[in-house]
Design goal:
Elements lengths: L3 H15 L6 E4 L12 H4 L4 E8 L2 E8 L2 E8 L5 E5 L9 E6 L4 E5 L6 E6 L9 H4 L12 H7 L7 H5 L10 H11 L12 H20 L40 E5 L2 E5 L6
Antiparallel strand pairs: 1-6, 2-3, 3-4, 4-8, 5-7, 6-7, 9-10
Helix pairs in contact: 1-7, 4-7, 6-7
Length: about 280
């Protein structure tokens, strides 16, 4: 599933070509994804200007404004969705479910597994946070609010392992499986250690490690583990530089020990017992 870096890369890819454009039309081919795409978008959005493209957690927010209309499209890529620009004369393929028609091209949403989301939240941009899908989202890990003191206090009562806690989107958003494993490796913290058994000093190492891991992933175009591709069709390459993720049985790049794999909360966790304590 695309996580924070992949969604941010997508946002940066589509924003320059969307902002300032006027929507000429909307095409809905398959209305039912994870939620039903609102049919009224076909009549509501034409004539609206796209004024901003934002990201909240793993959601893209496309702010639109027109005569008597203000709101944003809320888009989630699901497990396998992607947004790409295509020419007007390119016929849709089997899994192309939604088109945002612009003057010179189309922004097309494809989603083979149909776990994605295309919804509408009316009102000024600040009201997007009130949508039920966004209201429960946790802190942005690249924001100034994500501090060592906040994170240490937030996990003070959590006796479970730290790695699943990193992936709790109600606490901190967008740290997916690969980025949780990599952040803990960089910080030298075992994914098996209880969250409330980690000192504030070690959180002082983990917080910047999370920031650096996510920033490096964004710079690398994200991770293309399965279906994810950029809006231009290219693939992310962060997975190539991973220290432990998907390297079970291989030598640790730091100490030469053997990378191990365990299951936590139904997901594979990779770590080096020699480096991470």
């Amino acid at each position: 599933m695309p996580e924070l870096p992949e969604v941010e890369v997508c946002r940066r890819g589509i924003a320059p070509e969307l902002v300032g454009e006027v929507v000429r039309g909307v095409v809905i081919r398959v209305p039912r994804l994870r939620h039903e795409i609102p049919g009224f978008l076909v009549d509501l959005l034409p004539g609206c200007e796209i004024v901003a493209v934002r990201r909240r957690a793993k959601y893209l927010l496309i702010d639109c404004r027109g005569r008597g209309v203000e709101g944003c499209l809320i888009i989630h890529l699901g497990m396998s969705g992607n947004l790409r620009f295509v020419p007007h004369d390119l016929p849709p393929e089997k899994h192309d479910h939604f088109d945002l028609v612009l003057a010179g091209q189309i922004l097309r949403f494809a989603d083979p597994r149909r776990f994605g989301v295309v919804l509408w939240q009316p009102g000024p941009p600040v009201q997007a946070e009130q949508h039920p899908l966004l209201a429960s989202q946790g802190l942005e890990p690249l924001s100034d609010a994500f501090t060592v003191d906040w994170f240490h206090a937030a996990l003070a009562r959590r006796s479970g392992p730290i790695k699943p806690a990193l992936m709790d989107s109600h606490l901190v958003v967008g740290i997916g499986n690969i980025y949780a494993s990599e952040s803990l490796f960089r910080a030298g913290i075992s994914p098996l250690r209880a969250a409330n058994r980690i000192s504030r000093d070690r959180y002082g190492i983990l917080v910047p490690a999370i920031r650096e891991t996510l920033s490096d992933a964004i710079a690398a175009g994200g991770s293309s583990i399965r279906d994810y591709v950029h809006s231009d069709g290219g693939a992310g390459c962060f997975q190539i530089q991973a220290g432990v993720y998907d390297r079970a049985g291989e030598s640790c790049l730091r100490c030469g020990g053997v990378v191990k794999q365990v299951r936590q909360a139904g997901r594979s966790t990779y770590y080096c017992p020699g480096c991470q304590h």
